[in-house]
Structures are given as structure tokens and as C-alpha cells.
Structures
1.
Amino acid sequence: MAAHSLGGRLLLATDRITMALNVIGTLLIVAMMVLVNADVIGRGLFSAPISGVPELVSMSIVAIVFLQVAQTFRSGRLTRTDALLATVQRRAPRLRAAIEFVYAAVALFIMGQLLMASTPLFVRSWQRNTFEGTIGDFTAPIWPVKLIILIGCTALMIQLFITALFAAKAAIKGGDFSQEAADEPF
């Protein structure tokens, strides 16, 4: 890939952002593991559980999924039928690229719908300062998780758009549609 080109720099920046979101998601997993273990130890040894652990864990699961979904897609680890796609790739590479284009385009549309549906939920939770938990025991605002959903959807949509571009190029011109195989970004 021509990293010095504008397209190459945009791909590199996108990959770095996607990886940063993935790392944040991983750190959140570690934090939740520490919190749950501390809660279990506190509950068992001291009869003193940590308030809000179930609420934080339930909110964190959603956040982790959306923080890591773009990198999961980018690295080809989302659920798919690789055996079928590998067979199609060997026999008709352009057809494989066309299938990948349709997949990315449909997923892009679905994620766009999710983004549009989630935006008012974020705005409402921000404006109303909606929280999870029980007043007097533990409360946490839910807007950060709603914001992470928007960020994750956007990051995945960018990855899907890039994949659709490379797949369309490969379907029309032939060759490998992957970002790594591209000499020229677009």
C-alpha cells in the first residue's frame, strides 16, 4: 500500500483509531474482571459487596462490544462462511469480491440504521442525565455507553465503507480486494 498517498494515510489513521478503540475495550474487560473479583472477595471474606457492580458490568458489556466491533470486522473475525468464500475465491475471484461488496453494503446500511436510531437515545440520555442504579446506593450515567455505541457504529461504518470500496474495485478490475493487497488505496 502506498502509505505516502492521501488514501494510504487515511487508511492508516482509520486503522489506528480502530485499534485504539479495541485497546480501550480490552482495558475495560480487564477493569471489569478486577471489579468483579474484588466484589466476590469483598462479598465472601468481608460480607461487604461493592455497590453497582451488576449495573457497571451490564453497561460495560455493551460498551465493549461497540468498542471492539470495528477491529473485529477489520481483522476478519466476524462470523461468516469462510469455507464457501474460499471456494468462490479459487473459482471466481471477481464473484467473491462482488459478494464482499454486497455484504459490506448491506452491513453499512444496517449500521446506518442503528446509528440513526441510537442518536436520539444518546441525546435524550445526555439531556435528561439518565442513570442506571438506585438513588442512595449507586448511580451511573448511561450517556457514556450511548456515546460509545455511536462511536462504535461510526468506526464500523468507516471500515465497511473501505471494504466496499476495495471489493468494488476488485469486482470491476479483478484481483484481491483486501486492503493489504492494494498498491493504490482507491
Note: The first helix runs from residue 6 to 46.
2.
Amino acid sequence: MDKNVWVTVTGIQYGDNPEGEKIEIITPGSYSRKKDMHFLTYDEVSEDGDGITKNVVRFGGDTFSISKSGLTNVEMIFEKNKRNMTNYVTPYGSLLVGIDTDRIDIIEGDDSINIDIDYALDINYEHLADCKIKMEIRNTVSMNTDNAWRSLI
């Protein structure tokens, strides 16, 4: 994998809507690998365009973590068949978040890495939703950038 990558993150939350609420971003990122651990950084622009959240992702084996700093601040740790608690700090206050991970699949190819995570999310010990994260990390040269920009418009 190259250092410069395109990152596609799709989050789906299954709460009241059985089809789920879907959010997707496509953004440039920076990737590196040290021994068996992968590292990824990328910025996420808020919906109103007024703020940026910096994301640092670490993954390997049955563990995936994402640290966010900016408009929201949190370190979310996903470990297969394990429950993790964290404080999710927003401009409106702090929430106690529970993450109970059922599945982490990491598939490495020559020019891409695909990650699928299934987990249950609770807020202040009350189940909120079953969720999925799908992440694709792809070399910039292997992705058609015209299609990436069109999907953002």
C-alpha cells in the first residue's frame, strides 16, 4: 500500500429504521504499517463545513480503534467478542458510550484494505442501535478520482 490513500467510511445504524440510517464519507488519507499494526489518518469535515475532526485509526488482528479529535473527541475501541466503554465528548456535553463488538473482518489486497465491523452501541448503559462500519482504504493510483469527486457532489 502507498502512503497516500483514499478512505471510504460507511456507517450504518439500525435503530427504529429496519433498513438503517447510512452515512458515508470519501476523503484522502495517509497510511502506514509497522509490523502487524496498520495506521491511518484522515480528516472529516462537519456537515455544515465549519469544523474538522482529525481521525487516527489503528488496526490489526481482532482489534480496531479510532481516535477522533476536533468537534467531537473520543477513542472508540472495537475488539472481537469484547465490550469497551468510552466517553464521547461533543460540543453539547459528554456521553458514556458502550461498544460491544460481534465481528471484525480485515481483508488485505495488493492495493486495498477492506474492514467490516458489526457492533452494538449503547449510551449510558441503554441499548441505542446495532451498527456496522465498512471502511475501504485504497491506493490513490488505483481509484478513479473523477468518480470519487462525483460521489461527493
Note: The chain has one domain: 4-143.
3.
Amino acid sequence: MASIATLLPPGHAERLRDATRGWYHVITCENWPAVAQACERHQARLAVVDLFAGGRADFESVRQLKRQFPRLALVAYVTPDVDRFGDVFDAGRQGIDALIVANRDDAAPALLAALARAESRSLAALVRRSLGPADPVVRDAVLVAVNFAEERLSPQRLARLLGVPRRTLALRLAGAGFPPPRPLLTWGRLIVAAHLAEGSHRAANRVAAALGYPSGSAFRNTCQRYLRATPTEIRARGGAQYVVRVLLRQVQLSREPIRLGRPGRRLALAV
């Protein structure tokens, strides 16, 4: 089971523990150094913290955690206060991947959705590095497909978010060897699903529910269709990194010329 390191008041910690029961092992920490130790010792992928645990927003500790654990998803769980609005607004620029507002966003379904959103956004650095030099529209399309995996985007909304016509988006993706918008959105969801299952034994039904699949069977069928593997096999082969590798391998193959003819004669057809 995946672990969450927490630095929270008792009431918030209890609500988080109840909402994530069966999903995560929740580790209670007393200070920021203890959060770092828990992330190291238990390989926690998530940290849920009260930004104001020491009385003021400690963004330096946030930055240190991000430097030490680049793939760590950081979630701020805060109590609203007019004097804190400026710091809460600034949280996204300081490395916070998701925000939970007490008594507004912390019912169990909303809280789990926030954690899934944070985990998907923490993948951005891995995916961006894997893409390397790329058409900016293509790169941003892949990152949006990952960052918004739990929202079930349509191709039309993907294009709107990127600020380009849908036809233009499809042409740019095809020119770079990437799948069309709708399959690309499925790849984004598969990358996040594989990440959610890393280092754990979550049932496919749980991962499917977190990402809005109608059933565990629908999720497993998608894994077979796109990856020729079961969720368990995907986890054993490397999780999110494996899915990214398969996608990029297909992109590379789609950009290679097709060679026809007898030995000694070659005809290259660009695809």
C-alpha cells in the first residue's frame, strides 16, 4: 500500500485517514524534518501538510522537500482565514500540487480526487523529461492529458485549454508521430493509473474509480488494448515510466519510414 506523510492537526489527520482507508498508509509526522524522514524511509509518494503548522507558511520547507524528492506530490490542507489568503494563493508557485480547504473540499470523494490530481501533476517532470525537445503544442498536449487525467477531458476541451483549433492540434500531433487527441487523452489516464498503482497492490477497480472509468473491467480492457498487459504486469514493468516508454516507442515507430522491395532495393515511404 502506498504511503502518505502528513503534517496535520489531529482533526484533519483523522479525516484524511478515514477517507483514504484501503488506499494509503498514513504516516503522522510532528515537524517538517520528520516528513522528509518518512518520505525517505517509507518511499512516500504523497505528503499532505498544513502550510501553517508552525504558525506561518513555511515555503522553504516545501522547496526543500521538492528538491529532495522530485516526484513527491505535495498537497496543502488548510483552514481558510482571511489573513492567509495571500500565502494560499502563492502555494502553487512554491511547489504545491493540490489544495484542500477544510470543511469545503475534505469530504471523502473530493479529498481522494485532490490526492489523485496531485499525484498526476507530480508526474509532469518525468513526462517532460521523457519528451525531450518537442513541438510546444505537442508537449503541452501530453502534459495536459496527464495533469487532467481524472477530469475525463474531451478532445474539444483539450484543444481549448491549449488555445488551438482541434484540427490544428490533430495535425500537430500527427506531424510529431503522436496519437490523435482522443487516444492521447487515454494515454494520459494510463500514465496516471500506472503511477497510482506503483509500489502497491490496489485492485484495478480502485484505480478505475479514481480516474472515472465505468468499471474495473473497462480499465483492464483499456490496458490490454493500448499496452497488451494487465494492470499487475504494468506495475511489475515499471508503472508510469513503462507506460511512457511504450507510448514513445510507438511514436518513434510511427515516424520511421516504411521500407518495401526486394533485398538490395529499398523504397522509403514517409508516414
Note: The radius of gyration is 20 Å.
